[in-house]
Amino acid sequence: MELIILGSSGAIPVKERNLPAIALKSKTHPEIILFDCGEDTQRQFIEAGLKFNKPLKIFISHFHGDHIIGLPGLLFRFSLIDRTTPLMIFGPRNLFFYLYFHRITLGLHAGYPLTIVEIDHENQELIHFEGLDSEEPIKKEKIVNNIVFETKWYMMKYALVDHSVPTYAYAFLEKHRLGKFNPEKAKELGIPQGRIWKTLHEGNQVEYDGKIIDPVKEGIVGPKRPGRKITYSGDTMPCQSLIELGKDSDLLIHEATYAKNLAEVAHEKKHSTSIDAANSAIKMNAKQLLLTHISSRYQDDAQLLLAEAKEIYPNTLLARDLLRIAID
Ligand SMILES: [Zn+2]
Ligand SMILES: [Zn+2]
Asked: Which residue of 76, 157, 209, 286 has the lowest C-beta tally within 10 Å?
C-alpha cells in the first residue's frame, strides 16, 4: 500500500504546500481512499498520477474550508470526464447540503453512482443520500463499534476529536492479508501461471495433474498476515478518543500545526504541536508518525517541527506534497 500526500499545509496554501488531502492506494485493489479534500486537490491528483475514474472513497474530517473546498471542484472534474465509477463521500452533518448547494447554484451533477454518508455522532447514525437530485435520505442506520464503512478488504472507523467544530479522525483497518505467494515454488511443482495461481494464493487447494495441491503445505503460500492500520487525526488538540481509535496503528498521520513554543496558541485554537503529535503516537503505540497540516509560518523551517517530534518519538516523518510512503 502507498500513501500519497496531496496537501500538507494548514489553513492557507503556501508555495510548496497545498491544502490537506492524503490519498491511500493499494497494489491489489483499484480503489483510492482520500482523507480530506483541500482546495485544488484535482490538480494534485494530476501531479500524483492518480486517475479520475477509479472507485473512490472520500473521508472528510470537518467543515473548515481548508479541508473541504476542493470537493466541489473535484466533483465538477468528474462530471467533465464523464466519470462512471462509484464515489462515496463520508463526513459530518451537512455534507449533503454542502454539495446540494453547488447543484442548485452551479448545476453540479453526478452522472455516476454517488453516495453521500453523513456521520451523525450525536444520534449515532449514518445518513445515506444517493446522487444530488433528492434531498431525502435513502436510509439511516445505527453506527456499530464506530464503523462507518466496511468491505472485504478493510473497515473504516471514526472518532469525534477535540477541535473548534465537530471533527472526526478516521482509522483504516485492513483485514487479514493473504500469505506471501512464492512463484518459484509454484513453478518448481510444474503449476503453470494463470488463474490457478490466484486460487492457490487465496489459500485454496486445487487439483492439478491428478494431484491435490495444498498451497500452504507445499510452501507456495505463506501464513496469512495481519492487516495494516492507518489513523488520520483530522484537526485536533490532544484527546483520549484519538488515542483509543488509533491504538497500535502502523502509521499515525497527525496534524502538527505549531511548534512546541506555541503550545498555548495551539490549544487555544484547538490544534496540536509537534510534541502533542509525538505524545499521541507514543500513547497509542503507533509504529510510525507522519506530521502534517503545517502552519504557513513554518514554510521555510518546517524541519523544526520534525526535529522537535523526533526528540521524543524518533520514528517520525514530515509530510511534504507528493511524498509517497510505502506501508508494508
Ligand atoms: Zn485545518
Ligand atoms: Zn480545522
From this structure: 209
Q: How far is the CA of 64 from the centre of ligand 1 (A)?
A: 6
List active site positions: 66
CATH of region 2-177+227-326, choose from 3.60.15.10, 3.40.47.10, 3.30.70.270, 3.40.1280.10: 3.60.15.10
What spacing in Å lies between the alpha carbon of 84 and ligand 1's midpoint? 31
Ligand whose nearest atom lies closest to the CA of 269: 2
Cα 164 to middle of ligand 2, angstroms: 7
Average pLDDT taken over every residue of the chain:
96
φ, ψ at 261 (rounded to 5°):
-70, -10
Q: What are phi and psi of 229, to 5 degrees?
A: -130, 130
Is the pLDDT at 111 greater than 90, yes or no?
A: yes
Question: Is 72 within 8 Å of 100 (Cβ atoms)?
Answer: no
Q: Are 242 and 279 in contact (CB under 8 A)?
A: no
Question: pTM of this prediction?
Answer: 0.91
Give the integer Cα–Cα distance in Å for 152 and 207. Answer: 26
- Bridge partners, 118 (sequence order): 91, 127
